[in-house]
Every structure is written in structure tokens, then in C-alpha cells.
Design brief:
GO terms for molecular function: GTPase activator activity. Keywords: Cytoplasm, GTPase activation. Its main location: cytoplasm. The chain is built from 40 helices and 30 strands. The termini are far apart. The strands form eight sheets. The chain has a five-stranded mixed sheet. Strands 1-2-3-4 form a four-stranded antiparallel sheet, with no helix packed on it. A four-stranded antiparallel sheet has the order 5-6-7-8, with helices on one face. The relative contact order is 0.04.
């Protein structure tokens, strides 16, 4: 029975995501080679020399539905020759040889063609099976032809074949021999892997090679298969080729037809007569054959010379010999000098072909006649595919005569990426039957073949699970299948089914419309229903009219003809349901009797629960405060659990089987609403508990389903449960009553085993995100189970205390839920205003167990980020937690003083109180916070503070092993790519501003990023130095969380990281420091030019690798460049210090020492740097700081010039020259006066300096200069002049 085709929405995919603005994020796919297996279970995406294999896997979505997804199963490098790249890929599924197979492939072979001419065959896991060089030109296109059952007698049966197109040659490999060789290779590889032996090299493939002549360029091909001409065509061809006297053979020869597209001519038709070319074997096979003559059966290495590598003679590696091609001339073509073909796609029945060209046309070719029969325009860069549809079974078998054969229709699918539209056209001259708006960067995937290895015998009874045309959208990751109903090919206006399907679509659209008046809807629906004649369409009418809400407007009409039509189609179904409804009615009447009644007096006191509730009461109260009114939310009255339960929803969840009623789980909302209908009155005390339980037991519903409904409403209505304190006791009573029902707890239950009944309760609690309700349910169920076990124990061993595995499970479960509640309370603390807050995450026991051992620390790290806690603040909170744990008496008075905010209080409740002493140890928490901040920085690189705080968190990790691993992971995952891009761009453009645009960061963000890189590399060096002195830490976890399974924690990954090469890290630290200084002081520099060739080659390598580093004395030219750069850095720093003094700021005082440290690493004389720094400080008038740095080695002549410039400015260049200054100038010695006039005060950064500072500078200058110095007397005259000028002032 075939599924009915629902074409109510045919031709109009409602896909709002497909309306792209042209700037999508998917053009990368256009540069890749993509291939999809016809079974849709394997996709290959390749670019250059790399490839990714994606295999089909089943996944359960949030709604519980299973769906097929394609996930990465293998990725890596495919090429083995230098410089080669992937040029074509196809995936060929190989049929299973087992008799029990029903058409599913055994495995899939990936065939890859390379630009070097090699063709290689791989398994789904990337294992190379076979490689062969067939031609030395690049592989242009790989295509495959598989077996198809002939639809008509007399049609030539086609053989399987793999064809490989080169620029001037075509290679064909027989499918049967290829299938056997691939199976043998795969089996041999599997045996070698199991035995641990070496893989034996297989023999080469036999192939035919044709040299394609008489075409200028060839870009694509299609192998049509073997064809036999009729006698007339045979005589016509003989006359054209041989002339009047040509002879004609008695039987027409079989020929293989090939069609090529390209230029000159635009399309070429080639015919190769069978038997004209023998299969070629390369020289390897000939050598093997000659060796077999001497040792035919002595070699135990397999068939046809499959020798082990150890037995082969050592030969020099050289390219295999390439066999010459057999020339084959073009028989005829479609000449069009200006048109160039781009792609050809053969129809499944081998009679038609679609061809695209560079003029934006799609041409439909008649393959048999060699002519173009149709052309579409306006499809530039089009992609083609074919859909072949068979007529539905039974539609032509009802004829009074012999059943007619099933008809087949072919549709051409055209995807136009420029317009973002997918069209389906009927062939040959049919109309457009569908058009869909899709993305502009999709890829139409059409294989054109099915399973290899199928023949007329093995395919009997098989249902080939293959798709024909799929559309891959990289923007959404969706893979859509194009399916066309057969009736769309019936263009005849008298086609009854086509007309009725059109009417059904019109009726569906009419009933879905909300804008049509009821009277108009009634009349229109009546006329449409009465016009439908086809029986299959009438069945679909019943389905549509029962599922739509407005159907009663039509169905309930009093019109006699319409009513008889509807009732006639329903009569059989009503007869089948009558017995079931009669039984269901009597039982559901009991359920509807559960209306609220005055409650009976409730006196049950549960021993032990009050103490448990008192213990967790503070956390529950805090959790309720945070979740009750934290955020306003919108809800609909219809979705409320308190809304009245419609009869239709109630009955839709009930099934009657004989004497039992079974509840059918529906959507979560309906399930919770049904549970509220049955149990909420009991939980609130509004309904009598005993009467409800007795009534439910009479209905025959299984206790397990009732328990599921009870837990669903309890966990879903958490906020209301927390407000009703008596609900816990009512829950205990309900659980006890349900447990006592027949079929709940097995009578033969062994107390040393886990009970499925109580395991159901635990499973619901550990999966729930309602932490408080789950904890309360677990406490109640724990007490009920304990009472149950005690009763059973008294019957079996009255004098023994009951000890069971069940109670141990409950103790662990309750402890876990308490931990989760504390953690959830912490996560519910709202972030402060103005922080990057997000939705509050919800956790459960199951989620934490599946998240691995680092799941708890990861959740708290995300909370730290949302709270925008500074690293020092988190450090203080952890220190207070440690003090509280160490001294319990002092923690009480310090609590009010230490917990400065609700974040501190919540953190101490969750992380403190010994709740997570191991999972939230300081090192683990700081490591996860560091990782969270660097992940957030990677999302928004403009936020340089995130990376800075990540480094600060890393500094607070005490273990050097964890520090080393985290910093290595940070560097390799996030930092090095951006760091290298910044370095190369600054080197290339020598301009900081232009660099900013390309890297994607602003000026401040780039400076902060480079500063963080310096600190990160410094931490890396310090951690590497401290690793040998400290033993690696032991990563522990709390006992109740020891069963956590999932991905390795961050700390475990950190400890698994390789060590680093200290000199290489220091080399990168040097570059980072240079880049940071250049950005800080806006210096134009080419940073990589400051290193020699060895230094440049060592950059951006793996930090764990050993690289050839610069050693010995550096080239003087490089040292000079480095010295000039450091001098400019010092000048820039002194300028900022002057600005800081004028702005009453302090400025950063670490740069001079950093420059001196860099000078030592860069082999720059530190004395030169120190002298330059002193001169620059005096130049900017910062004499006190210059005196702190100055030493005896400073050149006095430099300071003498500075002093002269200051005095020249005071005496000669001030705007208001005083009379004492003029008199002093007249009294000066002529030599000094001339020297002062030659000074240029404009070189001073700060010319107006107090005379007291200048006097002190001259005194220091005389102390430095020796008495025999040539300018010593000039310094004495300067001292006298300054003293006179100071005295006059």
C-alpha cells in the first residue's frame, strides 16, 4: 500500500528563511566538491586536499521525535602527491550479497578524482582501498551508471560502469569487475587490520581508455550505455560514412554512446563499437604475470600477485606508466561557435539529457536522435536533476481487460541560484508543475545512479531505498528531497484524478481560510465535494475534513445529497467504532465522576518527612523567592493546567483494548492537563483521596500510567506546589495508594534488587528541571519506599532491620537532588542591571551526569559571567568560603559581615556548606571561568575586557599543570589565529589603522588583545618553569557524582596537553611585546622585519614543537633596527608621562624596565637605552625622574646641549624679555653668548622649566664631566649664568 500523496501545499514551500538578502553566509559551498550517496546516508564535502565525510545518524529532537541527521564521521587529508587537489567525488553504495538483504547497501565506496590524474577509492572511514593513475591530466568529472530493470521487452539491458573524464580522454571501468575488486580490497583491509599485518597492494583495475577527438574543449560527459541501431539507421550511417559503395553487415553492431559538452562543437556524440578496444592493464599487471610463470603456486600471498611489501624488491619510487588511449572521433555534434556547454545530466531512462551553457540556457536533448527539442532561457549557473515517478499501483489494474503496464513520468528539476528558485518541469513539452523559493547558495544533489552490484536476479523483490534529487541548504543545514506526484504529468484536461486533486487542494485552502463568510464557505464546499469523483481522492477528503476545525460547518449541513455522501464514506468506520465506544463510555463515566467534593478529614502524619523538610526548608524558601517573581512572562489561558479539559482531548488520550483502558501519551501540555484533571484536586485537598484512587483502580488504567500522570502534574506545577505546604502529605498518600494497586510493586520483588516501580519515580525526578518539586517528590517517595520495604522485611525476617539496594539508590538520589537545588538556586540569582544577562539555565541530575565531571563548574562559570563578577571578587568569595569551612564557629558572626550581596549568599549556599567541595574547588572554578570568558571574547572580540579577565582568572589558578594546559588550549584554539593575522597585516601594510579593519577589532580592542597575549605567554612560561617542582593535582569529584559520564572535563583536558618548548614561547612573547608597544604608542613598524629568517620561520608553530631558533650574535643591521624601535618606544612613553603630569595623573611606569628587558633579549646595549631615556626625560622637563634613572655613564655632552637649549629659550626666545635677562646677556662671555644663539629650543618638549631644576641639572653636569673635558669651561660659564639669572629673579 503506497502512502497517499499530500499535495495541499505543492508548489509553494513556505520557507521564510529562504528569502535571503544576498549576503548569506554560505558562498563557501560553491568552492567545494559535494557528493551525496543516492541512499542519502553519506555526504562528502571536499576542498583542495581536505575532505569531510558525513554519515546518517538517528537523533531524537526536543519533542521526542526521531529524525535522521548527517554528522561528521571522518575528516582529514586525502591527497598523497604533492600539490594535488580533489577535483571530483562520487559516493557509490554497494549492494549486499546476503540473501536476506532487502535493498539496503552493504557499504558505500567514495571515489575521488584528483588534479594529478589519480583516482582513489576509500571506505566510509577514510581507509584507502585502491589508487590508480589512469591519465596525467586532471580528473574533470566522475560518473556512474548502475543496473536498471528494463521497463519494456526489447530494451537493451545496460551494464554497470564507472566513467572518468579527462580533458582529452575518457576512461571507463566495468562495474562488475570494479564491484568484485572493491569487495576484495575491503575484506583484505579488514583482515589485515584484525591480524595487525601489513596491507597487501591489490592488482590494478582493467579499463578502457578513449582519446576524444574533434572537440576543442570538453568539460562534462555522460555515458548513455549500449545501444543497437535499427536497420534504417544502420544503412543511413553506412551511406554517410562509406559513400555509395559502403557495405552493410547483416546484424547491426552494439555501440556504447557517449555525449560530451564543451566548445567546438557545443555538444559532441561519440560511438564506440563493442570489441574495438581491449581492456588495458598497466605494466604492473604484466610484471606480475611474468613472475607467475616461475612461481605459480609457491607464493602464498594471494591471487594475481598480491604480495606483501616485505617480499617486494626495493624499487625507486616513480610514477606508474600511463597507457595510451584509443582514438575515437566525434560522430556528429551540435555546432555553435559562441556557446560553451557547462554541465550535462542524463535522464533515468537514458532517452533525454539536460545541458546548461554559459548563455544561461538549459537545453533538452533527445539522446537517440541527437537533436535539441526544447530550450529554457534565464537560468545562468543552473543545476539540473531528474525525477522519475511511477504510476500508483491499482490505478490501471482495474480495467476490465488485461492489466495495463504501469506508466512512468519524468520531470526535469532546475535550480537557478541567481534567483534562488527551484522549478520542476514536465518533459518533453510539459508545463512547469512546481516552483519553490529556496536560498541562493544551495546545491542541487542528483546522483543519477542507484546501488552497484545489482542484477536482474538479485533485484527481484527488492525495494531500492534511494532518493533521486535532494537540495542541500548550507545556511540552515537542511537536506530536502524533491518528490513529485504522478498525476502532475497528466496534462490531459479529461484526467479524472488530476482534476479531483486540484479540487481537493482548493477545498483544503478554502477550509483553512478564516476570512470567508460561513454562508459562502458552505456553498463553495458543497459544490467542491459533489464534484469529486475519484475514489482515492474521496478517502483523502474524509481525512482532511476530520482534521480541520471548520469542517462541522460543512459536514453538518442538512442537504440530502451531501449528507448521504459523507455518511456513506463513514458508515464502515462508525460500525467498527461502535463496540469500542460502548465499552469506553462506561469506563470514562467513572473518570468524569472525579469532580471536586468536600475533602475528608486528613489526619495522616508521615514520620520523618517533617525533619527532612525542615532541613531543606531554607533552600526551598530562597529558591521560591527567586523563581516566583523574577521575570514577567506571558502565558495563554488555553495552555493553563487549570483550564477545563475538552472531551475531545480527553478521549484522544484514551484507548480501549478489550476490558482495559490504556492512556496514550500525547503532547506534554495535554498530558499535564490530563494529570491535573485526575490528581490536582487531590493534591490541593479539594477531592477525596480514597474515592479517587478507588475509582481510578476500577477503570483498569495501569498504575504505571497513573504514576506518570501524577509525577507530570507535580513536576510541571512547581510554583503552585511550593505555595501549598499540605500538598506534600497529599502526595505521600497518593503515592502509597498507587503503590498498593495491583500490578504496581511486584509481589515477587527481591529487596536486594531495584524495583521498576520506584525506578520510574527516580527517573522522572532526575530528568526534571523543576529542582524543588523533584526534591520534594524524591523525599516523599523515599519515605514511602522505606515503609514498603519495612513491611516486606517484617514478613520475611521480623527480627532483622531491612537493608536494601533500593534505599541506597534513594539516598543517593535525594542527595543529588539537594545538590541540584542548591546549584539551581545559585543560577536563579538575577544578574545586575547593565550586564550581559541571558535566560536562566535549568539543570537536572541527568544533565549534570551527562555533562561529565566538569559540568557543575561549567554551570557556575557561566553564572559568574552573567553576574559580571571580577576575578578578585570571586577570589574573595572563595576565600570567605574556605575560612567558613575551616572555622565553623567564626563563620556564624562573620556571615552577615562577609556576604555583601545576594550573590555572595547564594554562592556560599551552593559552593559552601561542603555541597561541592571538589567540583567547585578554586582551581577548577578559575579554570572554567577563564575558558568561559575567552569563549565569550571569541564571540565578540571588541570586548577586550573579556579576554583580560580570562587571563586574570588564569593567573589565580594555583596548579602550574592546569595553568599550562589551559593556556596552551587557549593559545591554540582562540588566540594564535588572530595574533598571527594581526602580525602579518601590520607587517604588510605598516599601518595600524588599516590593520584594524582587516582583523575585525577596534584600536582599543586590538591594544588590549595584544596586552592579554603578552600576559598569557608570560603565564605559559612561568607555568612551564613550575611544572617540574610540583606534582600533578588529583582531580576528585563528590561521591554521589562519581557516576558522571560525558565529555572529559576542562581540567582533564588541560592535564593531557603536551608540554611547551620554552625558547619558542619566549620567542612569541618577544613578538607579542613588540606588537603591543607598537599599538600602545601608535608606532609605524614592521615587527617581523626585526627578526632574521630563522626567527620568522619559528613564529606561529606548535608551541610544543622543537624549532630552529636564532642563536649567536645578530646581524648589526637588525640590531640597529631594534635599537631604533626601542628608542622610539621610550620617546613615546616619556611623552605620555608629560601628559600625565599635566593632567595630574600617574601614568604607567613599567615601560622603561620592560624596554630594558626587551633590549637584553634583542641584543641591544642597555646603556644606550638608559642614556636616551635620561635625555628624553630632561627634554620633557621631568628632571626629578631623570635623576632617578641617571648614572655616571651618561654622556655629559648630551645634557650640556639640553641645558643650553633651556637657557637660550629663557634669554633669547621668550616673548617678554626682562631687563635683568638683557643685562645678563650683555655680561656673558662672547663664546657662551655665541653658543647660546646657535641653540634651537624648538627641539625641547617642555622649554619652560623652573630655573631651580636647570641649576640642579648644571651642577650634576659639572660633577659628571671630567675637568679635562673640552666643554668643561663652557659648563662653568653656564652655571654662573644660571645662578645670576636665578639671583635676579
Amino acid at each position: 500500500n503506497e502512502l497517499a500523496w499530500d499535495d495541499s501545499d505543492w508548489g509553494s514551500w513556505d520557507n521564510p528563511e529562504a528569502k535571503e538578502d544576498g549576503s548569506g553566509s554560505a558562498p563557501w559551498l560553491q568552492d567545494c566538491v559535494v557528493s551525496l550517496s543516492p541512499c542519502s546516508d553519506l555526504m562528502v564535502v571536499a576542498k583542495d586536499h581536505k575532505a569531510v565525510f558525513l554519515s546518517a545518524k538517528w537523533r531524537t529532537d526536543d519533542g521526542g521525535r526521531e529524525e535522521m541527521t548527517l554528522a561528521v564521521s571522518w575528516s582529514g587529508t586525502l591527497s598523497t602527491e604533492e600539490g594535488e587537489s580533489v577535483s571530483s567525488v562520487i559516493c557509490i553504495p554497494l549492494a549486499s550479497q546476503k540473501r536476506s538483504s532487502t535493498g539496503r547497501p552493504d557499504w558505500t565506496c567514495i571515489v575521488v578524482g584528483f588534479s594529478s590524474g589519480y583516482v582513489r577509492f576509500y571506505t566510509e572511514s577514510g581507509v584507502l582501498l585502491l589508487a590508480q593513475l589512469l591519465n596525467e591530466d586532471p580528473v574533470l568529472r566522475l560518473k556512474c551508471r548502475t543496473y536498471e530493470i528494463p521497463r519494456h521487452p526489447g530494451v537493451t539491458e545496460q551494464h554497470e560502469e564507472l566513467s572518468i573524464l579527462y580533458p582529452a580522454a575518457l576512461v571507463t571501468i566495468d562495474g562488475f569487475s570494479l564491484f568484485q575488486s572493491l569487495r576484495a580490497c575491503r575484506n583484505q583491509v579488514a583482515r589485515a587490520a584484525a591480524a595487525g599485518s601489513e596491507v597487501v597492494h591489490p592488482p590494478p583495475l582493467a579499463y578502457k581508455k578513449w582519446g576524444l577527438q574533434d572537440m576543442d574543449t570538453i568539460v562534462d560527459h555522460s555515458s548513455v550505455g549500449i545501444m543497437t541501431l535499427c536497420v534504417f539507421d544502420q544503412m543511413k550511417n553506412a551511406s554517410i560514412l562509406g559513400g555509395f559503395h559502403a557495405s552493410v553487415k547483416g546484424s547491426p553492431p552494439a555501440m556504447s554512446q557517449y555525449i560530451t559538452v564543451g566548445g567546438g562543437p557545443y555538444t559532441g556524440f561519440y560511438y564506440a563499437i563493442e570489441g574495438s578496444s581491449q581492456p588495458l592493464l598497466s605494466h604492473v599487471a604484466l610484471a606480475v604475470a611474468s613472475k607467475l610463470t616461475s612461481a605459480l603456486f609457491s607464493a602464498a600471498s594471494g591471487w594475481l600477485g598480491w604480495k606483501k611489501q616485505s617480499e617486494e624488491e626495493p624499487t625507486q619510487k616513480q610514477k606508474p606508466k600511463v597507457e595510451p588511449a584509443t582514438p575515437m572521433a566525434v560522430r556528429f555534434g551540435l555546432p555553435d561557435s559562441r556557446r560553451h556547454g557547462e554541465f550535462i545530466c542524463l535522464s533515468p531512462c537514458n532517452t533525454l539529457a539536460g545541458v546548461t551553457d554559459d548563455f544561461g540556457r538549459v537545453t533538452l536533448l533527445d539522446v537517440g536522435r541527437g537533436i535539441a527539442i526544447r530550450m529554457w532561457k534565464g537560468y545562468r549557473d543552473a543545476q539540473l536533476g531528474w525525477v522519475q515517478v511511477s504510476e500508483g499501483r491499482g490505478e490501471r489494474e482495474s480495467s476490465p481487460s488485461a492489466p495495463l503496464p504501469r506508466r512512468h513520468a519524468q520531470f526535469l528539476v532546475i535550480y537557478a541560484p541567481r534567483r534562488g528558485i527551484l522549478e520542476v518541469w514536465g518533459t518533453q513539452q510539459g508545463p512547469r508543475v512546481g516552483a519553490f523559493t529556496v536560498g541562493k547558495h544551495c546545491r542541487l544533489l542528483y546522483a543519477g545512479y542507484r546501488l552497484m552490484g545489482v542484477n536482474s536476479v538479485t533485484s527481484q523483490g527488492w525495494l531500492l531505498h534511494t532518493q533521486q534529487v535532494c537540495l542541500f541548504d548550507p545556511a540552515t543545514g537542511a537536506l530536502r528531497t524533491v518528490t513529485v506526484p504522478f498525476h502532475l504529468a497528466l496534462s490531459d484536461k479529461k484526467s479524472e484524478r488530476a482534476k479531483d486533486m486540484h479540487l481537493l487542494k482548493r477545498l483544503t485552502t478554502l477550509l483553512k481560510s478564516r476570512e470567508v463568510e460561513p454562508d459562502i464557505l458552505e456553498s463553495e464546499a458543497q459544490s467542491v465535494l459533489l464534484d469529486i469523483k475519484h475514489p482515492a481522492v474521496k478517502k483523502q477528503v474524509n481525512t482532511h475534513t476530520h482534521t480541520l476545525q471548520q469542517t462541522p460547518l460543512v459536514v453538518q449541513q442538512s442537504d440530502t445529497e451531501l449528507t448521504s455522501y459523507i455518511q456513506g464514506s463513514k458508515r464502515q468506520a462508525i460500525a467498527e467504532l461502535s463496540a469500542t465506544l460502548t465499552n469506553l463510555e462506561s469506563r470514562t463515566a467513572l473518570l468524569f465522576s472525579l469532580v471536586p467534593h468536600p475533602p475528608l478529614p486528613f489526619q495522616t502524619e508521615v514520620a520523618g518527612i517533617e525533619e527532612e523538610l525542615a532541613r531543606v526548608s531554607p533552600t526551598l524558601q530562597r529558591y521560591a523567592e527567586l523563581t516566583s517573581g523574577s521575570r514577567p512572562s506571558v502565558s495563554f489561558a488555553l495552555d493553563s493546567p487549570d483550564a477545563s479539559l475538552p472531551v475531545r482531548s480527553f478521549l484522544s488520550q484514551m484507548e480501549c483494548e478489550g476490558e482495559e483502558i490504556r492512556v496514550v501519551p500525547g503532547p506534554n501540555a495535554d498530558w499535564t492537563q490530563l494529570g491535573s484533571f485526575l490528581f490536582w484536586g487531590c493534591l490541593t485537598g479539594e477531592s477525596p483521596l480514597q474515592k479517587v484512587c478507588t475509582t481510578l483502580q476500577k477503570t483498569g488504567i495501569s498504575p504505571q500510567q497513573l504514576l506518570s500522570l501524577l509525577l507530570s502534574v507535580w513536576l510541571h506545577r512547581e510554583k503552585e506546589v511550593l505555595k501549598k505546604t499540605e500538598a506534600v502529605r497529599h502526595l505521600h498518600t497518593l503515592l502509597t495508594a498507587l503503590s498498593s494497586m495491583k500490578g504496581a510493586v511486584e509481589e515477587s520483588w527481591d529487596m536486594q534488587c531495584v524495583s521498576p516501580w520506584w525506578q520510574q519515580v527516580r527517573s522522572a525526578c532526575v530528568q526534571s528541571h523543576s529542582s524543588a518539586a523533584a526534591l520534594l517528590a524524591a523525599i516523599v517517595a523515599h519515605r514511602a519506599a522505606k515503609a514498603n520495604i519495612t513491611i516486606l522485611g517484617e514478613h520475611t525476617h521480623p527480627s532483622w532491620e531491612a537493608v536494601s539496594l533500593e534505599l541506597e539508590q534513594w539516598a543517593v538520589c535525594v542527595r543529588q537532588l539537594e545538590d541540584v537545588l542548591s546549584l539551581q538556586t545559585l543560577l536563579c540569582v538575577p544578574p545586575p542591571q547593565g550586564t550581559p544577562g541571558s535566560a536562566t539555565p535549568h539543570c537536572s541530575v541527568k544533565a549534570l551526569l551527562e555533562g561529565g565531571r566538569g559540568g557543575i563548574a561549567d554551570s557556575v562559570a557561566k553564572w559568574v559571567f552573567r553576574q559580571d563578577l571580577a576575578p578578585e571578587r570571586l577570589k574573595d568569595m572563595l576565600q570567605r568560603r574556605g575560612e567558613a569551612e575551616s572555622t565553623e564557629q567564626s563563620s556564624q558572626p562573620e556571615q552577615g559581615k562577609g556576604e555583601k550581596s545576594q550573590e555572595d549568599a547564594a554562592f556560599n549556599r551552593a559552593a559552601g556548606e561542603c555541597r561541592f567541595p571538589d567540583s567547585l574547588s578554586p582551581d577548577l572554578l578559575f579554570a572554567h571561568c577563564c575558558w568561559e570568558y575567552v569563549v565569550q571574547w571569541n564571540k565578540d572580540p571588541e570586548e577586550g575586557r573579556y579576554l583580560s579577565w580570562a587571563v586574570e582568572h588564569l593567573k589565580l589558578v594555583s596548579s602550574p599543570h592546569i595553568q599550562l594546559g589551559i593556556s596552551s588550549m587557549m593559545w591554540n584554539t582562540f588566540i594564535v589565529k588572530c595574533f598571527s593575522a594581526a602580525a602579518f597585516l601590520i607587517e604588510k601594510v605598516n599601518n595600524v589603522c588599516l590593520c584594524i579593519q582587516d582583523v575585525g577589532m577596534g584600536d582599543c580592542a586590538m591594544t588590549a588583545f595584544l596586552g592579554s597575549c603578552v600576559q598569557l605567554l608570560q603565564i605559559l612560561m612561568e607555568a612551564d618553569s613550575g611544572v617540574e617542582e610540583v606534582t600533578p593535582p588529583e582531580l576528585c569529584v563528590e561521591e554521589v557524582w562519581g557516576e558522571a559520564e560525558g565529555p572529559a572535563s576542562l581540567a582533564e583536558l588541560a592535564l593531557e596537553q603536551k608540554g611547551v618548548h620554552y625558547p619558542l614561547v619566549q620567542h612569541h612573547y618577544l613578538l607579542a611585546s613588540l606588537l603591543h608597544t607598537a599599538m600602545t604608542f601608535s608606532l609605524r613598524v614592521k615587527p617581523l622585519s626585526l627578526f632574521d629568517s630563522k626567527g620568522k620561520n619559528a613564529f606561529f608553530r606548535e608551541l610544543s614543537s622543537i624549532q630552529l631558533m636564532p642563536s649567536g650574535d645578530m646581524d648589526p643591521g637588525l640590531v640597529s633596527l631594534r635599537q631604533e624601535f626601542l628608542l622610539r618606544v621610550l620617546t613615546g612613553w616619556v611623552t605620555t608621562q608629560r601628559e600625565a603630569v599635566e593632567g595630574s595623573g600617574s601614568g604607567d611606569k613599567t615601560w622603561p624596565s620592560l624596554c630594558l628587558d626587551l633590549g637584553l633579549l634583542l641584543q641591544v646595549n642597555p646603556d644606550i637605552l638608559r642614556r636616551h631615556l635620561v635625555c628624553e626625560l630632561y627634554n620633557q622637563g621631568l628632571d626629578p625622574r631623570a635623576e632617578q634613572v641617571e648614572d655616571k655613564d651618561v654622556l655629559g655632552s648630551q645634557l650640556l646641549v639640553l641645558t643650553g637649549q633651556r637657557l637660550s629659550y629663557s634669554l633669547l626666545h621668550t616673548q617678554t624679555q626682562t631687563r635683568p635677562a638683557m643685562e645678563l646677556l650683555a655680561r656673558l662671555p662672547p663664546t657662551l653668548c655665541t653658543w647660546l644663539k646657535a641653540m634651537d629650543p624648538s627641539e625641547l618638549g617642555c622649554p619652560s622649566v623652573p630655573l631651580s631644576q636647570t641649576s640642579r641639572l648644571v651642577s650634576r653636569l659639572i660633577e659628571i664631566l671630567p675637568e679635562n673635558h673640552g666643554q668643561y669651561s663652557l659648563a662653568l660659564h653656564l652655571l654662573e649664568a644660571v645662578e645670576d639669572l636665578q639671583r635676579d629673579d
